[in-house]
Amino acid sequence: WVQCATSPTSSTDNKVDVTNSSSSSSSLLSSSFSVQETFHETMEIFEMKMNQKYRDNNNNNNANNNDPWNIWSTYASKLSNVFETIVSTIVTTTTTNNNNSKNNQRLLLEVIGGCEEGILYIEKQIYEQHLGTDQQRDNALSNLYTSYGHMLSQLSPTQCFRLASDPHTLLVGAPEVIEQFHSSSSSSSSSQTDGEENHDDTDLSQRIVEIFGPLCQDNADNALRNAISLNANNNDATSLLGSLTGTSPQEVHTRK
Hints:
This protein is mostly helical. Helices cover 67% and strands 2% of the residues.
């Protein structure tokens, strides 16, 4: 996926509070986590390391085997940890604090947007600079796609609907599915009689499940296959895709 004209959903000011998380994976820097701050920090460190690598190459200095791309694997891991923290928080707050639940739902999509932004950044580097083969880069991009695929696979149809509604999302097929949803909603409204108002919410929920249920699952499948095509030794992506599709490790390496 190379989409160079868009910028995924994110917010500079919003921070994910991980202070009260019981997850051991939430040893994430500090008591709060800003997706945008982390992205820009990662990008700055990456560019600094790339400049150093170019200087070393020009000076025929091969002593430093630095991998500038690895910082994006670290970024993917941080986003995955925060995603899991928010998911567990949503489960515990949905019935106790509706406002917190809504805020966490929004932050969940911001973390996914941050993952999209990392993918987009590397894809743009490849596209705009005509970069050749680089397995270290492909490994990092593979890890980002793995995190992205896992996140998408965990979304409910309603969460997928919210993500697809963002015009900057990288979800393949989102505009068409949104149009299908609005068309079906208009048809349902025009055919509704006075005695059918009580069925409105049920019909809406059913349409969301039917239309958006497959969207994020299909995109998760695609992202995990991208991860494996970039790095055939990515065992996490292989395992996740196997769980998603119910296939063996050998079968998941067969491209759809």
